[in-house]
Amino acid sequence: MKKYFSFILVLFVIFALFGCGNEITSGEIIKFDETQAKETILKVWVDDTDGKLMEEIKPAFEAANPGIIVEYQHMATIDCREKLKTYGRSGYGADVFQFPHDHMAQAILDDLVYVLPDSLMEKLEENCLPVAMKIAESNYDEKTGTFTGTTKKLFAVPISIESVIIYYNKDLLQSEGIDLPKTMEELLKISADYKEKHGNYGFAINSHWADAYFLQAIYGAFGWTPFGKDLNDQTEVGFEKAESKAAIKWMLENLKPVTTGNGNTDSIQGTSLFEEGKIPFLLSGPWSVPGFKTANINFGTMLIPTINGNQATTFAGAQMLAVYKYSKNIEAAVKFVEFMATKEAGEILYRTSGDCPALKEEIINEIPGIKDDESIQVMLEQLSSSVPMPTIPQVTYYWAPAETMMKNLWNKEGNIDEEVAKAEKSYKASRDLAS
Amino acid sequence: MKKKFVFVLAALLLFFTVTLYGSKKVNADEIAGKVIFHYQLWDQDYSSAGLWVWNTGSGGSSNAVTSDKVDSFGAVYEINVASDASDTIGIVALRKDITLDSRWDYRETPDGENFFLDVTDIKNGKKEEIHVYYFQGGYQTYFVAEETKVNVLVCYYDPTAAYEGNLGLHTWGSYVQEELNSVGWGTPAKVFKDGFKSPGDAKGKVALLSIDEKDIANAGFLIYAGDDATKKTPENACLGITDWADLKNGSVNVLYVSGGKTYYGQNALKDFVENSFKFDFIGFNATEVSGTYAVDPRTIFVKTTLALPTKEVIGKETVTKTRTVLKPQVKEGGTAFTQTDKTFPSYSASELPSGALGKVVVHYQRWNGDYTDNGAWTWDGGTGSVSCVPMGGVDNFGAVIELPIYADASDTIGFICLNKGVKAAGNDWPEGVDDSNKGTGNIDVDVTSIKNGTVKELHVYAFEGDKDSHAGYNTSANLVNIFVVYYDLSGNYEENLGVHSWGNWVTEGMNGAEWTKPVQVFSTGLKSPKGIEGKVALIQIDEKDIASAGFLVYAGDDATKKTPENAFLAVTDWADLKNGSVNLVYIALDKAFYGKDAKADFATTAFSGEIEWVEVEEEYQEEVDVLGVIDYKKYFKLMCGNDLVDIESINFNQTASSTNEFVINLKNAIDTSKEYTLYYSNGATGEELVEANVKIDIDTEKPVITLISDEEIVIEQGKKWDPTLFPLYKVTDNRDTNLTGRVYVKSGHGTLNTNVPGDYPITLVVEDTFGNVGELTFNIKVVAVETSGCKSGSAIMFSVMSALGLLVFFIRRRFN
């Protein structure tokens, strides 16, 4: 009995010691200092006035790249470069910044651009439009400070691409019984006839008729590009070439009479007239589309028609993102620019701005809406024959002489031989002065 | 007949009247009115400024709008607005290059931030004109004047941009703007806008006051921030407008206030700019987090009111440049006068022959430059001299022939330059040489200064065709020597041909020359290959006087000026001419020639047939400044009391020509409990001295994390963590506005075990840009739950029972 009692007691002890030891393990251990640790802050300066693009890019990128927080700021592209020169080295500039096609060389010379890895270049070459890649790549040789090195390197990521095309007012064409012209000659005749009937010429330009960026479509049809066939020979701006002079002659004899008449290059407000529904055709680019939509214009787009049977060859322009050379967050910055060349980022870009991502057609067409976007599709077709914007630094000195030359010819009836010679000299003088 | 004539005349008049009226009507339909845009730039250089406008309707002004009109405010641009214009027209003001694409580098508003002006009053016919006033750096702020009232634009500028939040006007009297009426003392009317920027980007304030002229005598205002201590003018600002009571309706008047001074009236803008836009630091602006301040303990952002140069001259170098010059070219079918392509050895002075006291050095210039077997025939040089002397080489002027002078030489020696046949020195007349080969006539030289030992050399200059008995040209080693060669193709020269001059010349008569009275410096000094004579003058000046001197060739009036511009303008490096130098200016056919190729160009122009001018590129040498980036460490100094703080480096935009933004990087972190002052001095003295100082703003405030949700989170033991339970928080900071995204969990202070009941403090951390760290700890409580096997109460009971059991067990063992 005593033994039995003792045994009971021992059982009690064992039960007390072990019976209540059934530990709860259904919870979890969370290390917040690991999951919410200090993150890399990536500063991005972009020309995104309304911030709509970056509002969506930021969460998309951060979700795909844990540990990196994007802080973005709207900054005009020229300001980007200037501010980086002052604040970059101290760590108060951007890690990623934006510039347009013709600013890249200057940004490189200003020692602002980090050379992106070859592996990224290879990846982008698979995904991005070749013409856009040509703008983003360069043979810059850091040792010699020239752009004629032997090795091609990637200096930026092209995020959007653009070209001028022709926009037309569908309603106006229908009400006027105008068929889409197949040649520039037909378009110019429509323009003249429209003037007879309505007082306004039927074909206008979004800029002015001395803007060499727009006029490249015509120069191209005559086989001329500045800076030689590869657009990179600063010794050969080429105003005086026969092809250039032939294009100018054609413009003065054929284009001017039916676009401005005796007026100056900027005497017609083409965009306003188009948005007011008063003219059927406008030479412009994708940046005009939001305005057309706001003005409720039922517009269509078409390729720039052939001139004398030759294809119009426009400049392909691109907006690009680069990594700041002295960024303290190079790795994160490279991830960001790489992300910006993905279909996901392209979709956001297209949705928020209407811009055309610089991706290959087969990728772009997977983006919802783009395949049915006539403006984009026509522009892509136009881009298939475009030449990349020259990116050598001397291109800076091309625009002003080109504009002055055409103004002197168009507005003051100057002599072509004399004006091209003057433009050539003016370019060389500016170039030499700068050097 | 008369009736018919009158009828025709009347019909014509009617026709023209209808036509004119009709055309006017059409025009009036198209252009509803104008925006008159008044644009003020601080340097008042409006030569290439302009506007870019759009949405002005059919026939309205479009794109670039230029003007050469200015009023007392600034440039005046007229923007035509058509009746079908948009309700708001777009405007971009551009400081420079309005006709070029580079215009966009000088825009007042950044891309995408243009400003728009409401023109509905013009479109609906209420107004014919709207007058807009806009200051440099105004961004999107402009002022529309009340056309029927007195308008006063009040500009207030603080170079440090430290404007009080309460800054405004105290006013009395009756104004058009309601907010300016019945303004109580101590509550300023906040009517100022950021209306302009200094050249260094410091913001300035502008307010537009409108008042009826009948009310003006009893009205006034002052600028302040609510009390006497903050008054911005020693007296009421309106007192700066001396004719305040006389201002008329429709007038626009500008009053500038800065540094306790007011500027008003004719020179107000100039005086304001000169006195107010001085160099200073822009102080810290807490609202915008800008200006000069410590951004972190080792980095100071600096902003100044004026831009400083980024480079300085560190040396000189000679560079080869190209330029386009006009060159004479003989017209097709003409006969060109050409230069020889022969080259000749350069002249180098030879040693004097034994017994010679010195030498006459003859410089002889031939028009075709051919000096083959040239030399001189000389006489009276004394025993030891030879008559026939070949040239010793060429210099920039021409052939150089040395004529030794011996003790028994005559006081005046003679020579003739010969164009051929002088193959070697000797005393025989060179073979085959006759009068036609004489390059000059007999030229006499007074050599007494050599004979009496005063000088060893006399340099004499002669041009081809210099006539007989000419005295030659005696240059001076102590003066700048300038030969002026003037040639008229007809050979006809006015009797009173000479020069008009200004400045301090050594040449007789050229000091204080009177207009209409040419100084007679010319003599016949050359003959062209065609036998036509030309004029030559040697004029001289000390190099110290040359910068303010000049001359022109004429015969007494404007009509007889021989160059389209003053001849000296052809001397491109005029101010750099040195004493002892010999320089040539040639003038022919209204052109002046100077420098490289001058003689060849002159000869082609003057001696060929009909010529034309063509542009050619030529290379030239120029001494230029070598610029180096300024080391601003020598100009900036950071002090902590009396202690100098080490600056490691200063960053700025080195590719710009000037900048007003710097980043100072310190070697060591500053002590945030101390005060620091930044000094700038350019190291100059007197009026050139530029200096300023500013106290450095240091951020000593930590960012504050505030929980938006509950401070304690409770979770049951054994539950999985639900991420939505993590508290919501926000961060506020005195400088940084967007720190919430930077919050993280402190290492070692963020582990939660939901299996084990208890309190789990989690510490959130955030660091502001300066480096101040704010923390907040919240608690996650894991509460125990009863399990099916062993509820807590039972556990206690079991424990008690176990203890009792053990006690009984041991007691029984002891007593058994």
Characterization of this structure:
The complex is a heterodimer of chains A (435) and B (816). Chain A is an alpha/beta fold and 435 residues long. Chain A has 2 domains: 40-162 and 316-388, Periplasmic binding protein-like II (D-Maltodextrin-Binding Protein, domain 2, 3-Layer(aba) Sandwich), CATH 3.40.190; 165-313 and 398-434, 3-Layer(aba) Sandwich (D-Maltodextrin-Binding Protein, domain 2). Chain A is built from 19 helices and 14 strands. Chain A has helices at residues 2-19, 32-35, 52-64, 77-87, 104-109, 118-127, 130-136, 170-176, 184-198, 212-221, 242-255, 270-275, 289-294, 330-339, 343-353, 361-364, 374-383, 399-412, 416-434, and strands spanning 29-31, 40-46, 68-74, 96-100, 137-138, 153-154, 157-162, 165-169, 203-205, 281-284, 299-302, 315-323, 356-357, 387-388. In chain A, the strands form 3 sheets. In chain A, strands 2, 3, 4, 7, 12, 13 and 14 form a 7-stranded mixed sheet that branches. A 4-stranded mixed sheet of chain A has the order 9-10-8-11. In chain A, β2 (40-46), α3 (52-64) and β3 (68-74) form a beta-alpha-beta unit. The longest helix of chain A is centred in the last third of the chain and has 19 residues, at 416-434. Chain A is globular and about 95 Å long. Chain B has 816 residues and is mostly beta strands. Mean pLDDT of chain B is 86; it is low at 1-29 and 791-795. Chains A and B meet through α1, β1, α2, α4 and α12 of A and β19, β39, β45, β46 and α6 of B.
SSE blueprint:
The complex is a heterodimer of chains A (435) and B (816).
Chain A: H1 2-19, E1 29-31, H2 32-35, E2 40-46, H3 52-64, E3 68-74, H4 77-87, E4 96-100, H5 104-109, H6 118-127, H7 130-136, E5 137-138, E6 153-154, E7 157-162, E8 165-169, H8 170-176, H9 184-198, E9 203-205, H10 212-221, H11 242-255, H12 270-275, E10 281-284, H13 289-294, E11 299-302, E12 315-323, H14 330-339, H15 343-353, E13 356-357, H16 361-364, H17 374-383, E14 387-388, H18 399-412, H19 416-434
Parallel strand pairs in A: 2-3, 2-4, 9-10, 12-14
Antiparallel strand pairs in A: 4-12, 5-6, 7-12, 7-13, 8-10, 8-11
Chain B: H1 2-30, E1 31-40, E2 50-54, E3 63-65, E4 69-70, E5 75-82, E6 88-94, E7 115-118, H2 120-123, E8 129-135, E9 143-144, E10 150-157, E11 168-172, E12 193-197, E13 203-211, E14 220-224, E15 252-258, E16 261-263, H3 268-276, E17 293-296, E18 299-309, E19 311-330, E20 356-365, E21 375-379, E22 388-390, E23 393-394, E24 399-406, E25 412-418, E26 443-446, H4 448-451, E27 457-463, E28 480-487, E29 498-502, E30 523-527, E31 533-541, E32 550-554, E33 582-588, E34 591-594, H5 598-607, E35 611-629, E36 636-640, E37 643-645, E38 647-651, E39 658-666, E40 677-681, E41 691-695, E42 704-707, E43 712-716, E44 729-732, E45 744-745, E46 751-753, E47 758-767, E48 773-783, H6 792-815
Parallel strand pairs in B: 1-8, 10-15, 20-27, 28-33, 43-48
Antiparallel strand pairs in B: 1-5, 2-3, 2-6, 4-5, 6-7, 8-9, 10-13, 11-14, 12-13, 15-16, 17-18, 18-39, 19-35, 20-24, 21-22, 21-25, 23-24, 25-26, 28-31, 29-32, 30-31, 33-34, 36-37, 36-40, 38-39, 40-41, 42-44, 45-47, 47-48
